Amino acid sequence: MASHIVGYPRMGPKRELKFALESFWDGKSTAEDLQKVSADLRSAIWKQMSEAGTKYIPSNTFAHYDQVLDTTAMLGAVPPRYGFTGGEIGLDVYFSMARGNASVPAMEMTKWFDTNYHYIVPELGPEVNFSYASHKAVNEYKEAKALGVDTVPVLVGPVSYLLLSKAAKGVEKSFDLLSLLPKILPVYKEVITELKAAGATWIQLDEPVLVMDLEGHKLQAFTGAYAELESTLSGLNVLVETYFADIPAEAYKTLTSLKGVTAYGFDLVRGTKTLDLVKAGFPEGKYLFAGVVDGRNIWANDFAASLSTLEALEGVVGKDKLVVSTSCSLLHTAVDLINETKLDDEIKSWMAFAAQKVVEVNALAKALAGHKDEALFSANAAALASRRSSPRVTNEGVQKAAAALKGSDHRRATNVSARLDAQQKKLNLPILPTTTIGSFPQTVELRRVRREYKAKKVSEEDYVKAMKEEIKKVVDLQEELDIDVLVHGEPERNDMVEYFGEQLSGFAFTANGWVQSYGSRCVKPPVIYGDVSRPKAMTVFWSTMAQSMTSRPMKGMLTGPVTILNWSFVRNDQPRHETCYQIALAIKDEVEDLEKGGIGVIQIDEAALREGLPLRKSEHAFYLDWAVHSFRITNCGVQDTTQIHTHMCYSHFNDIIHSIIDMDADVITIENSRSDEKLLSVFREGVKYGAGIGPGVYDIHSPRIPSSEEIADRVNKMLAVLEKNILWVNPDCGLKTRKYTEVKPALKNMVDAAKLIRSQLASAK
């Protein structure tokens, strides 16, 4: 019985790739240094999978930014502004597309399906000249082969690539991206031909859009594309991989009828209904890659349940045609549990990171072949039993409080228009008030102090003193820049979710459970293992300290319940919405304590609300109902004069704008600049929005500093569709990842732009 891994984390067990990338970007190391670190990481990954007994080991899943950008490079689909003139794409052009440079902005970045991973969105149109411009897939296959490992090269499939793209600026909105299939398929043919010549016997084409609700013409595009590729694919075993959800019946029918395809991969963790489709009919002689090991969470597999599923499938597809696999790439989970030396032993026994999931996949494959590791299976059963019966998982008081939420929609008593009037009388803000999203740059010194305090090398008194000095510096800078509503800069926080999870019951924390979000950006998701409550105030001390340093409004900064949920590894023994309601009640306690402490503006970030939207439209309404309700629970008890802000990050918002309005926040700040101001099109199309809104005026994920004229131009575009009395001026996101040398001039230009337009509006009266 064979085993397969869809993909593997790239960062390395100790974030080696992150540090190599940042060193290269800062000019402290060479391209050769970066490639050496990358090659060492790839070699270690392939060796690990090979030694575990994995038959189908992926290659070309290692990216310096993301796999979609790698495909853009492979196809030579570089937007003209980056000055690419042909040939092999180098790192300079590659990273300019991802991060921008001094003269041109980056391409748009958005979430990869419903994960916290991001990808760079291809910009395509009829004028793009596609060419085979990156030989990475072939080079990595050869690299693995030279190490004695025969791999399965992985490519983003041609139809998914186009459907994950957008029309470039200036291209008609009605342009059909699928019309480019005849132009990109010749490049795919070149790549596949080279892989065959290099000795590849299998190839994996990831077509995850097949789990979406696709119209008939999009499904037909798959049929046409694979018919066109059939002769090139001849002689290869071809796996088409899907993940993240059930595959709809029509898409299943299309997929299993594709020409030239040998095998189909399904997510059987998040796509349990797919099992019914397989059992009802599976093409004879084809392989089924059964994704029974969860690639998106850190809980140990239930061996007995998985084995039962696999045995049932074996009766449908045949013993020699069933392959045990992960549900998706392991990119979305942490790297190796062996590095968690401080994690509680009981909780640790309930977990499996990427390295352990490779072992799980192979253990299941061996058991199915009649070589069951009885000791491993017994330990697995004992760990699952321990988790089910552990008293630390359940808190009756929390469960009763969450159950009591039923029957109310938890709305504030007064409508938003009346609240904004009451808040303006108290805050006395100018037209187009300026603010930032929360965090300020985290310097090396700041990180050192925080790290040493955690390691008990710095006393609490010295730690508080250092944080107070940092907050004072941030407050003084904002006053010097003449920003209207201030933040304290969050120097005490390494991560917006981890910080809160550390202070809530029901959470556990890892030392090295890092997961890639985009580029070199890694997050360390908390683990929600039990019922959630707030033992004591979490932010009141820092926020009231910061407010005492200024007469200007100081925002209290919180992370919302949906974002805490979506950016954590969540318990899988109860519905997600029940866990979310528990978190909402904990945040509600904090909001009310901040208000009592004299904080009049409180921001409850819901950066990840859109990210959690299910991939199938039939499931949207239920998710949005409990997600929006959770947000309202947090602030339903505050006074009209307390202004509630929320913030949302990179995502497609237009399809959920009515749910955003239903959140009933007083002010929302939202990403806008990097997505070509797509958000504004909602308001152009007539959606009425009466609360305060701050579409981001510049992209903080790029080191580029926008001019005041550029920002003013953006604000004027906003004023064309939004009333001046509700518009705020702010960056796209927090400033934690930037340097002060970038932040100061950018914020100065932002404030100057706001003042310029205020004066223009005043003189136009």
From TrEMBL:
Q: Which Gene3D superfamilies match?
A: 3.20.20.210
- Ranges where the Cobalamin-independent methionine synthase MetE N-terminal domain occurs: 3-316
Reactions the enzyme catalyzes: 5-methyltetrahydropteroyltri-L-glutamate + L-homocysteine = tetrahydropteroyltri-L-glutamate + L-methionine
Q: Give its E.C. classification number.
A: 2.1.1.14
Q: Which residues form the active site?
A: H701
Q: Which Pfam families match?
A: Meth_synt_1 (PF08267), Meth_synt_2 (PF01717)
Amino-acid positions noted as binding Zn(2+) 2 in the UniProt annotation, renumbered to this chain: H658, D662
Please name the GO terms that the record assigns under molecular function.
5-methyltetrahydropteroyltriglutamate-homocysteine S-methyltransferase activity; metal ion binding; methionine synthase activity
The cofactor required is: Zn(2+)
| Keywords, alphabetical | Amino-acid biosynthesis, Metal-binding, Methionine biosynthesis, Methyltransferase, Transferase, Zinc
List positions binding Zn(2+) 1. H647, C649, E671, C733
GO-annotated biological processes: methylation
Which pathway, metabolic or otherwise, does it act in?
A: Amino-acid biosynthesis; L-methionine biosynthesis via de novo pathway; L-methionine from L-homocysteine (MetE route): step 1/1
SUPFAM superfamilies with a match to the protein in the record:
UROD/MetE-like
Name the domain of life this protein comes from.
Eukaryota
The record's cofactor note says: Binds 2 Zn(2+) ions per subunit.
Matching InterPro entries, A to Z?
A: Cbl-indep_Met_Synth_N (IPR013215), Cobalamin-indep_Met_synthase (IPR006276), Met_Synth_C/arc (IPR002629), UROD/MetE-like_sf (IPR038071)
Q: Where, in this chain's numbering, is L-methionine bound? A: I437, G438, S439, E490, D605
Q: Which family does it belong to?
A: Belongs to the vitamin-B12 independent methionine synthase family.
Q: What does this protein do?
A: Catalyzes the transfer of a methyl group from 5-methyltetrahydrofolate to homocysteine resulting in methionine formation.
This chain belongs to the protein called: 5-methyltetrahydropteroyltriglutamate--homocysteine S-methyltransferase
Annotated organism of origin: Eruca vesicaria subsp. sativa (Garden rocket)
